[in-house]
Write a structure and sequence with these properties.
two-stranded antiparallel sheet; about 90 residues
Length: about 90
């Protein structure tokens, strides 16, 4: 019985850790930029209920996508250029 409780506890803990994302609003602009450069691709919370994926270069985008500047609010800059965002080519033609 103890083994089952321990296993469930570990699964819940691992699930909570997997769901947490770095928050751009809790870090400096330079820290957010450095995180993107280090990880090459990272999903970050950009507000209370918003998130975005930022990449270090267009090579992290899928075929049929292009990389555009990706801005997000940071603790020290409301319009921080965090990295690039991959956008479908069809959505950039509008």
């Amino acid at each position: 019985m103890k083994a089952i409780i321990l296993t469930v506890g570990l699964l819940v803990s691992a699930s909570a850790q997997a769901q947490s994302r770095p928050q751009t609003t809790a870090m400096s602009c330079a820290s957010a930029q450095a995180l993107v450069q280090a990880r090459k691709s990272v999903v970050m919370s950009t507000g209370r209920d918003t998130y975005a994926q930022f990449v270090a270069s267009e090579s992290q985008c899928y075929l049929g996508q292009t990389a555009l500047p990706g801005f997000a609010p940071a603790a020290d800059n409301p319009q921080c250029l965090v990295g690039l965002r991959c956008e479908n080519l069809s959505s950039t033609d509008r």
